[in-house]
Fold each of these.
Amino acid sequence: MKKHIVPIGIAMALLVFAGRTASAQTISINSVSGSTFCGGDPVSVSFTVTGFWQHNNAFTLQLSDPSGSFTNGFSNLSSIKDTLPGTFTFSTAAPKTAVASTHYRVRVIGALPYVESADNGSDLAIGQAPHLGLEINSITGVGMPLVALTTPPAYEDNTVLLDTFYWNLGDGGVPADTSGVGLWALETDSSSGTPTIITYSTAGTKTVTVRVVTPEGCSATATGTVHVFDCSSPVIPHDAHVIDTNATVYYDTTAIWVNPGVTVYVGGGGDTIFAESGSTITYAGGENIIYLKPGAVLNNGGGNIVIFATGANPSHPAYQFSCPSLTFDYSTAPPNKAMGPLAVQAPSVPISVTLSPNPSTGTVQISGMPDQAREISVLDVLGKTVIDFEHSAPTMTLDLSKHPKGTYYFRFLVGTTVTTKAIVLE
């Protein structure tokens, strides 16, 4: 009988292979980094495997359905490729789309060969984080009510009514802070039906913050801005673009100074437009701030913020604020042949001109003109100049009887100060 001699190297390999195949592959979960999570929160799961695994094996962390079952409806959260025994950690996140439940479980599976661990052994809670988008009626005036601060409901069903909303209106806001269950709109307290009156005591750009907390303790924060105006004279900056002829302009985030009698189409957005008496804005792209002096006209201002004086025509912009005696601060304005030299070269002179009688049947007496006065213009309600002449004496008489009845605006240029007075012709 022949004896077969197996080389020692092959024998050792067979022993190792036999040892590997004899040791069973197992997976056990050691720990989960918490028991309560919100969508998007970090999750760490530690697990240990024994035995040796085939080439291209992967360990996968799975999340059950909301009832804790892995029969169907589970999801894969993370995978690690390895073939050796040891202890590993998954570092992943709770799904943002997970349905809120307190009965989730996790398990780990191996692919080659296919092996399932037991689940983690206790329920895990995952809550849905709110999805916010703050909607703000972004213009108001000091002391004027602001009634359109809302966050669209985070869910399509009524669960949003159980969320708690924490509002902070920013500097000068009244009330400064307010909160409540279901208070998703500060227009009206949806839990009580009581209107919430919002005002600001100071002007400026305010940061509004709302934090929403769900019954499961998940939260989200959104911010927005409110532009609060008062009737202080806006400053024309030194880098403003002077528009002195009819034009179409396309600027962004700049200042535009429109001269009397000029018609301009503004195609850009984010501009600040200073419209002198008698100027016309035929169109302005959205998100501009437009100041209209008496006799200035805005024909299409939708989507803009418009601050206008008595006698201006602001059309029907989405956001408008009335400043009856609006004027401009020219102290840093650029050279403008229609408005005179810079204030730093010719300081502004106080002016207190009076028109009488007012109303008038035709004859108007102008009193109180200082010696530095240079020009006087009379504009109709459409901003059209009907009379234009040089100053000649402190007291003057002007006849308007040949003009149609209505309101007229006298424009006085003294140094770099422009003053407008209204008079009614009967």
Note: The longest strand covers residues 219-229.
Amino acid sequence: MATGYAELLRARHAMRLLVGTLIGRLPNATGPLAIVLFTRAEGGGYTLAGALSAVYGLATAVGQPLLGRLVDLHGQPRVMFPAALLSGLGMALFAVVGIDPVPMAALAVLVAGLATPPLEGGLRALWPGVLKGPDKVHRAYALDAVAQEVMFAVGPLLLTLFVAYWNEAAGLLVINILGVLGAASVLVSPPSRAWRSAPREAHWLGALRSSGLLALLGSFFFVGLALGSIAVAAVSYADGYGDALISSYLLSALGFGALLGGVVYGARHWPGVPERRLVWLVLALAVGYLPLALVPGVVSMTALAGVAGVFLAPALACAFVVVDRHAPSGTVTEAFSWLVTTFGVGAAGGTAVVGPVIEWGGASAGFGVAGVGGVAALVVLLLTARALSVTPPGSGAAPVVGLAAGPGHASAPVAGAENDRNAAPEPGFRTGRQA
């Protein structure tokens, strides 16, 4: 397993692209927390802090697919580098102006969110040109999913360290300077500069004209909802024991489970079509979330949280493959950006919904929301199986035979279905298609 990942990271440009993307996404990973800490330090209340964080989150959700479409049209450096600078300047303005006047503060975080560069989708567009062979690309997707888990755990820790050594404004500035530098390291690399999207058909819906992609987005909205609800329910569970650290135990166990699952998933080759495999993975994810509503003692609950996280990174890695198979030609960055956006909006919805549920039924009911979200994600995949079995014109993927029969009915994939999609890209990284 270690040898396979080491071989992947030894590929030319691979380590630079992965690390640069993770550093470049630090502002996004820490943005909501940084806004809350800075607002509170400036004397603002939690209501204002939450409102500004919501503005940033919604702006990011809107900006990602729009910038992704521009990347598909004009290339990565021409779009993402100015976006990274503009986003960093937005946060710098927020740090300088503070929260008075409030409209100026809101405008600053709005600009920062809207201009957040779609580095995550951009990285997945680069993998096929850097890593030769479908197995390596699939492993990179799994490693990518694991790295995101690590980044969202390490990012807030770095921010709190900067705040402790300097102050909230300095922490905000340093994180965003690092973000711009990380983005620049990716965007000046040969793969990013040479990358070109596949030819695309002009259509106002862009990637969203694919019914299969819409089905996937609907499912992962509920996966995001489940995760968002778990974060709040964990705090409620910890409050019941009078120890705030318990929530960190649960969330850390959830992240460790995802990390372990993603590493193991990416270490082996999986036969069959990814659409059918995704149904099984989401089924396992839902089954893992349901026992959390039992809210046993701390040790048992921490173990359940670890198990619940095991299938998250594999499901995400498989979803990356499915996104590419169903994205219309020339829309790959936009399609990946829609997945990021939908997942984030679902998580925000989960945090909003679970609060009243907890007030009504306690931590058990809050974790029940996560279980319902997991089941809903599975139901969406099952109800839209026909859409996932049909690929849009120009996508290059062969249809998925027998998917509509559901996860319990096996059928052989079309011969060459994945080979057509996984063929090595042409030299020079001029490809917009994924493995």
Note: Residues 404-435 have pLDDT under 50 and may be disordered.
